[in-house]
Amino acid sequence: MKGRFNWGHGIALVLTAYVGLMIYLGKCAMSIETDLVREDYYQAELAHGDRMDAEALGQAIGTPRVSYDAGTLIISGQASDLDALLAGGAELYVPTNSRKDRTWQWAELQGERVSPERYEVEFDAPNGLAYITFKWLTGRGPAEKRIPVHFPA
């Protein structure tokens, strides 16, 4: 009897290849790091509701115009809105490089109120798109407003 390849051999070969593939995929899946984005994800989730409330309060104030020109960050808008926005602090969020993120109080910066509707401050800005979140206190609690800003290279 010659060693012939019949349908039984084919089934055994296909099942062996299938089991080998499943073992390989299982090893690949186990080697992927599934770390959480944040260590304190639960606390961050609880604080998310507070942040949504702050954003809702921030909608009461008009959106300022934020621009950047030759090393100067320019914020313009209605005088009453700027008074509220500049009384608190801000965060700079750079999506492409978290090392360039920072937080500050407007009073700490050496800015200048050029006119009632315009504020200018020397600013070391990152290249590309970033977001500035204005944060201030109101009579009803904390408020914030997030504004995208494009910093030219």
Number of helices: 3
Question: What structural class do the secondary elements suggest?
Answer: alpha+beta
**Residue runs with pLDDT of under 50 for 5 or more positions:** none
> Rg from C-alpha positions?
28 Å
Q: What does it look like?
A:
This protein has three helices and eight strands; from the N terminus they run ααββαββββββ. With 153 residues, it is of the alpha+beta class. Strands 1-2-6-5 form a four-stranded antiparallel beta sheet, with no helix packed on it. Strands 4-3-7-8 form a four-stranded antiparallel beta sheet. A hairpin with a 2-residue loop joins strand 5 and strand 6. The longest helix has 25 residues, at 7-31. 12% of the residues are buried.
Keywords:
alpha+beta; 4-stranded antiparallel beta sheet
Summarize the structure.
The protein is α+β, with helices and mostly antiparallel strands and 153 residues long. The protein has three helices and eight strands.
Write the layout of secondary structure elements.
Layout: H1 7-31, H2 41-58, E1 65-69, E2 72-76, H3 79-87, E3 89-93, E4 102-105, E5 112-115, E6 118-122, E7 128-138, E8 141-151
